[in-house]
Amino acid sequence: MITSPISDVRTALDQLQADVEAWASGGRLDAATAGELRRHLSSVRERFEVVADRWPSEGADDAG
C-alpha cells in the first residue's frame, strides 16, 4: 500500500508522542525533560500542519 508523505510524518509524530509518554510514565524521563519534549513535539506538529495544509491532496500523486 502506498502512503502519502503527510500520513507518514503524522504517523511518526504520533509514535514519537507515544514514546515520550511511555518513557515519562516508565521513569526514563524526568518531568522537566518530558515536559520540554512535549512542548517541542507540539511545536513541530503545529509547524508541520501548516505545511501539510499546503500540500496537494492526499489522493494526489506524491511523486509528481
Task: Walk me through what this model shows.
It is a single chain. The protein has 64 residues and is mainly alpha-helical. Helix content is 70%, strand content 0%. It is built from 2 helices and no strands. Helix 1 packs antiparallel against helix 2. The two termini are 18 Å apart.
Radius of gyration: 15 Å
What fraction, in percent, of the residue positions are helical? over 70%
How would you describe the shape? elongated
* First and last CA, distance: 18 Å
What fraction of residues sit in β-strands?
under 5%
Structural class determined from secondary elements: mainly alpha
Total DSSP helices: 2
Task: Report on the biggest sheet.
Answer: none
Query: For the residues shown, what is the average pLDDT?
Result: 87
The string of secondary-structure elements, in order, is: HH
Number of strands: 0
Low-pLDDT windows of residues: 59-64
Element layout with pairings:
Layout: H1 5-25, H2 31-54
Helix pairs in contact: 1-2
Task: Please tag this protein with its features.
64 residues; 0% strand; 2 helices; mainly alpha
Q: Concise description?
A:
This protein is mainly α. It contains 2 helices and no strands.
